[in-house]
Amino acid sequence: MRPVLNFCAGVLIACSASVALADCVVLLHGLARTSSAMNPLEEALNEAGFATVNRGYPSRDAVIQELAPLAVEEGISECPSDQSVHFVTHSLGGILVRYYLQNNELPRLGRVVMLAPPNQGSEVVDKISWVPGYYLFNGPAGYQLGTDEDSIPLNLGPVEFELGIIAGSKTVNPILSQYLENPDDGKVSVENAKVEGMDDFIVVPHSHTFLMRADVVIEQTLLFLQEGRFDYVAE
């Protein structure tokens, strides 16, 4: 069924109840964030008819190898057992999904949308992880997102699931951006957001920190979950 365009959560999106009512979406926030960062997306997904799970996880308390099953399995457990499970992630959340799916089977997996994922690591970690206070703010997982031999993202293989990636090209942190290949979002370069096996990729003019709250990002996320594609063209 062709989705009907409607206004959901204040943005123009495709509200296809015939698809959405059968599916559950697990939202995973980024490093040093909370579930509230994903609230605008949660609201839009609910309005579009999806069941949603938006729970926090202790991103600063453990390594990625421990966080991945903790966050992903908790989310899956709250989805009805007869529904497909999609994921919408921000930053570190995308790496948790990649790590989990590389090491576990999920037969009812649907589609995945990653927002600003450091799929090839971030040079910011390489440059500033020695700074006093870095561990306090980012925890052990924060050291695993660089581009060296300890990088978890770089040690993961190509994705083998349906994946759309939205990268940001606007920075509000020129100090961090000096360590990144342009364009970048202040923490991850556009190039490093890519991963082999992805199905679609778009770049929007928003920063890493607030990417998940942008209307265009919410609109395109919903479209990918429903149709497996983006239709955004940068102006």
Task: Explain the overall architecture.
By secondary structure, this protein is an alpha/beta fold. It has one domain: Rossmann fold (3-Layer(aba) Sandwich). The protein contains eight helices and eight strands; from the N terminus they run ββαβαβαβαβααβαβα. The chain has helices at residues 17-20, 39-47, 64-77, 92-103, 123-128, 134-138, 174-177, 215-227, and strands spanning 4-8, 11-15, 23-28, 51-54, 84-90, 109-115, 162-168, 200-204. The strands form two sheets. It has a six-stranded parallel β-sheet with strand order 4-3-5-6-7-8, with helices on both faces. Strands 1-2 form a two-stranded antiparallel sheet. α3 packs across α4 (92-103). The longest helix has 14 residues, at 64-77. The radius of gyration is 17 Å and the shape is globular. The protein starts with a strand and ends in an 8-residue tail after the last helix. 47% of the residues are buried. Residues 1-20 have low confidence and may be disordered.
